Amino acid sequence: MSLKGYSVPRTSTGVASLVPPPPWHYVGDFLVVDFHADPAAVVSLLPSGLEPHSDAGRCAAIFADWQSCTEDGEEFLDPVRSQFREFYLVVNALCDGEEVTICTFIWVEKDFALARGWIQGFPKKLGEVWVTRAYPLASRAAPGVAVGSRFGATCSARGTRISRARVTLERPSETGSLHSAPALVNVRHFPRLASGRHEEPAVHELVKSLSRDHLIADAWEGPAELELFPAAGEEHAILAPTSVDRGYRFTFACTVDDLETVRTID
Amino acid sequence: MSLKGYSVPRTSTGVASLVPPPPWHYVGDFLVVDFHADPAAVVSLLPSGLEPHSDAGRCAAIFADWQSCTEDGEEFLDPVRSQFREFYLVVNALCDGEEVTICTFIWVEKDFALARGWIQGFPKKLGEVWVTRAYPLASRAAPGVAVGSRFGATCSARGTRISRARVTLERPSETGSLHSAPALVNVRHFPRLASGRHEEPAVHELVKSLSRDHLIADAWEGPAELELFPAAGEEHAILAPTSVDRGYRFTFACTVDDLETVRTID
Amino acid sequence: MSLKGYSVPRTSTGVASLVPPPPWHYVGDFLVVDFHADPAAVVSLLPSGLEPHSDAGRCAAIFADWQSCTEDGEEFLDPVRSQFREFYLVVNALCDGEEVTICTFIWVEKDFALARGWIQGFPKKLGEVWVTRAYPLASRAAPGVAVGSRFGATCSARGTRISRARVTLERPSETGSLHSAPALVNVRHFPRLASGRHEEPAVHELVKSLSRDHLIADAWEGPAELELFPAAGEEHAILAPTSVDRGYRFTFACTVDDLETVRTID
Amino acid sequence: MSLKGYSVPRTSTGVASLVPPPPWHYVGDFLVVDFHADPAAVVSLLPSGLEPHSDAGRCAAIFADWQSCTEDGEEFLDPVRSQFREFYLVVNALCDGEEVTICTFIWVEKDFALARGWIQGFPKKLGEVWVTRAYPLASRAAPGVAVGSRFGATCSARGTRISRARVTLERPSETGSLHSAPALVNVRHFPRLASGRHEEPAVHELVKSLSRDHLIADAWEGPAELELFPAAGEEHAILAPTSVDRGYRFTFACTVDDLETVRTID
């Protein structure tokens, strides 16, 4: 009667677990737009433990077209269990004086990615994400990874448009997006339902993402467009761009099997 | 810099929270099939703190076609935020000598219902659920709530069939499903990701569901069919029926804003 | 080697046909809003063979939550094959002097309903439609069919909001929506692909809908709201309301197995 | 009052047309499995005008992960309007003595692709299709296009699994799939609804696909697996493999703006 499983549902074998145990290997095509939002809006989203960055309004919008697997690696033979797309917004902050980013809003297409996100502190909801693909041959139906090619992306949730971005490739990128360098922090949060204690989460901790075996390929950059649209029950549009900086397209791979707790939030 | 929200994502207002704060008001049409499975399979799914029931193999399969709202009650004017269908399996057990049921597998259609389920200890995944509807007029396209009418339901997940049920109405039901009377217990579980501690969940507690303001309408019963289908990454089919008992159709309403922790599971 | 099937794909048995042969029995809950649009916009949408109505701008927006079946009637036991929701707009016109309506835009959730619509001349696309449901008991989670109850509905397509409506029930309706009385005409249209003939459709005919065995139940009316939202690749928003008239909620059933060709359009 | 649009819905501008006018440019990643089925089953699916091939049971199963656009080419900046995946089965036949293939069953993910298929004679239904992707860097989460790499694909419809395939890359392919060389024929079919004439389609013609500007890249082959699963309302499983031949993976591009009518079917 001892149950196994990294997540629910737990059974005597653990096979049914929505999220298989780490390590989780990821590879994805990214479309990223650096931008600036109202600094006060950014600051209003910082959890306890983070301080405003000196360039407080700096943000990035990220569309990712992922394939992931666990150590056994067989999920990509049943790709409904390995593929997902997501859109997220990160903002700039300081954590104990260190420059960091934090993910404030994120939408993803699959349940396993939703739960795996919560476990890492990403505040995930379900959404539909679309990103232009490149193919390994020249066609009017696909932009090449080449000068002048254009890529687009959208996110919607509950039948309402959340965001839209476009990037025109200008040249290979040496730096990549400004949001890539800093450490990524998040807040792991799991609510309580006991009466009278709805405002005392069972889990509430500032965490720092740890990932390893980073690879990057085909990084390009160029001018970009970005729009964030208001929607019922959503607040991401408070980060509507006041200026749009550079856009980036690249392929990225990494592995996750650890997470650092910075501190518990009272 | 103090964030609000019953669930993630948390903001200065709490408006974007995937799960709004309780109370949660529910109303739904139910199609339920009582059945028996292999007692050893049932016992293999009991968490620490539960003991086998003397009729250990007794289970129920429940399809529910829900509409829910919070205290403000405005969600049903934007029904993408209030409607969802789910399919779940409960099994029989004893908790401190008391007869209880526990939900072992459950699939649901929306993100807010998935997260709200995890908070209550339901081990939810996403799935697609379909249930025959009755309409308030006689038509060949709809069964009436009347003698001889037939209702069907299916659940699928990741493009694979999970279950199928059929119930033929025979007479109004005085007792309702045998699974309805006992208290419902679940396990709240939230994983940890820190390296070396993957098997030490951050939250792991046996909880008893508390709900109030129960209403029931139009309860009928009759003979039933039920099938559970194996699927990759799923284990519900270990509860495949060894015998199928009565089926039930009814409408049920309740409100949830509390949960009792029975004990923490080590 | 003689193939059968009312629609594609055709086989030696016809079982795989996307659309089973008529008759098609329908039952659905309706939320309807009568409104007026710019008369010039309405007239711009009239096909050859229709003339403007004297009240040219009069339109209706219809949300329907359907269950349908064929003569065998077994589809509702596998409701993924019987249930669908749709949203459509009809406008006023004259056909050989007779007052008619014509469906100018329509979105539906299922492939069989999309194809069945094309066969009848409805210009269907896929969309997601949500409509508030009533349940047969009093609950904060469901409006009753009673004075003061509020119902909402939305349609979206390709991740973009198409429309939103709200109706508050005021009293049982004796007349029903003004759009219900006139005959419904449509244009059956099936394109040609042969080079140089892209503008010569293979089928292009004005048709009048014929349906029988109409039933109506629980018809109520009251004040309403309606919005139509612009979207890429869509033009329904040219019918944005200049004034919103009454709203209606009712349940309707009918059977379809015939269609009258008014004339071929050159 | 003259309406425009290559397909419905037609308006004064044609912008809302579900299918934009040709040419249609396509690029896609393909996973193909050549196989043999019961020759009698294949022959039972041949429309009037086709004769059995001497190797009558030879078939192919094709999974394609497409991006498409029209002459303006802007759809790929809003990829919900350009991307779709599909799964289809082709069988071998003779047409006026010429070796051809014909598509007997096909499922696709988007409405525009569904309708565009009907126009070309593909008997499309909606389905969900998943195909393993390759990424331009080495990762445990993605197979490379290299010796020993494995790719998988699935199709499901209405919540039921339709097919599953796996291919292991062994070496670059010089020949490609045996199904690629012959011309592709299909049957354009559009039903009639007038009472008494349900069995007299309005359009019923044998057509030969014409496409131009073919490009192919990265063609590999190797051993393969293929399963076809029975499902309610489906008949593709009559083509269940009696033997599975080679599998192929490649990227393919073409343009379509013409179709040849071979003959009308009485």
Write out key terms for the chains shown:
homotetramer; 266 residues; mainly beta; Acetoacetate decarboxylase-like; 7-stranded mixed beta barrel; 2 helices; 12 strands; globular
Topology:
The structure is a homotetramer of 266-residue chains.
Chain A: E1 24-36, H1 39-44, E2 58-70, E3 83-95, E4 98-108, H2 111-120, E5 124-126, E6 128-131, E7 150-157, E8 160-168, E9 171-172, E10 183-190, E11 203-228, E12 243-264
Parallel strand pairs in A: 4-5, 4-10
Antiparallel strand pairs in A: 1-2, 1-12, 2-3, 3-4, 6-7, 7-8, 8-11, 9-11, 10-11, 11-12
Mean pLDDT figure of chain A = 96
Summarize the largest interface: chains and residue counts. Answer: A-B, 67 and 67 residues
Strand content of chain A: over 45%
Structural class category of chain A = mainly beta
CATH superfamily of chain A: Acetoacetate decarboxylase-like
Poorly predicted runs of chain A are none
As a percent range, the share of helical residues of chain A equals: under 10%
Helix/strand order of chain A: EHEEEHEEEEEEEE
CATH topology (fold) name of chain A: Acetoacetate decarboxylase-like
